[in-house]
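Protocol step 6 of 9: fold each sequence in the batch and record its structure tokens directly after the sequence line. For illustration, a two-sequence batch is reproduced in full.

Sequence one:
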Amino acid sequence: MPEVAEIFKSHGKEYLDKFQEKMLPSHKRALRDIVRCRTEYFGAHIYRCDHCGAVQLLYHSCRNRSCPKCHAKETKRWIEERMDELLPVKYFHVVFTLPEELREIVRSNQVVLLSLLMTMAALSLQELALDPKYVGGRIAILAVLHTWTRAMIYHPHVHCLIPAGGISKDGTTWLPSNPGFLVPVKALSIIFRAKFMAKAREAFPNIDFPQSLFKKEWVVYCKPAVQGSKKVLEYLARYVHRIAITNSRILSVKDGMVTFRYKDHKKLQR
């Protein structure tokens, strides 16, 4: 089965010669690390059997977060650590999505704008949750950034796992929320849009943001995690230590073309 590392070995130099001036340093490092993963470059361990004397050489992984061969142990450990943090209450799954008009701007300014996406999503949730009509206290938020869809399209959005309740302002009392309702999504969408755009325009005064961004409804999803908080954690874990293009997605490499498998979410919904 073809692997990402093999494609990089065959075509990486050609790609760098053409695009390296436009590539982020982290992208260049990922390309180098993935090619060198589990080779002598990163060293190795030598194991000898005490009974038969057989020797096995195991090369070290690169541990780059973009490498499809790495991070199985880290993913398992991340899930276990988050499971230990879960409260014995119901949870909500909340998703904040940036509009299509922002994608190219965000992609060109990822460090600042992806950070704003995470921060403004959390602040918007906290602001509404403090209202006595909903929770009336401070909520806990586990947020994980996703930047692609099942169809491998650049699509920045953030998933949040939130317990159904919060802590009173003085920190002494647990305040349960309605188990079927956390905060109103329309109000959450408006607050999130206002907060994000205010900070984005402040950070990039020279960018001409489309006026449609201020008029359209931004997509915010907020539903009880009916499948269970563990299932949501397992879903989020795929993106904490994994990348979009895994070796299992690659079907063939022929005549300079890579054929890979993806899921069309729209067709799945039909």
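Sequence two, same batch, same settings:
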Amino acid sequence: MFNKIYSENRLFDPNDEGYGDWFKSTQEKPQNTKLFSKSFNSSVFNTVFNEEKNTHYNDSREIIEYKDPSAQETSIDYSNIGQDKIKDFTSRNNSNMNFSDLKKAYNNPYLVDSRNVETRDYNSVNRLKSERSKISFQMTEEEQQRRNTMNERLAAEEEFRRGRVREQDKLIEEHYNRMNHMFLERF
């Protein structure tokens, strides 16, 4: 009886949302064509994979969202009070278990275009420190304006979050009073 009452009267939690309904409702999966002949080896695999990937990226006109650097997340599990709906379920950086968001991985199996990744090899920590010491940055007026706009947006988002917290607190209080009254009447 308790479980029935609980399931009928539980409150919304953004972590309860997920892609279950989306995943069930996706159209019939495309039929995989046979890519490999009987003479399969790693060279054949790499060739076919690179051709497939290059075809995807040549046809792709995706917008890349630029994000300013942010503080590294902690390894302590936490949830944000006043959390809005979660749009990306990718694990946090310092999580014990690393995983990608299902919807992103399902819709884009080629996560990074390796042709556009520039890598540098450092022989020592001193060489890395030396290169980093040469970095200097002075914001242009346009960059400063962009930073101010972003700060205003972040302040507005924080105000919306605080509003959600106030509403959630009110809902919890009303829910508690309703449940308390119901249990006192029944038991």
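Proceed to step 7 once all outputs are recorded. Observation for sequence two: The helical segments are 2-9, 20-25, 42-59, 102-107, 125-133, 141-186.
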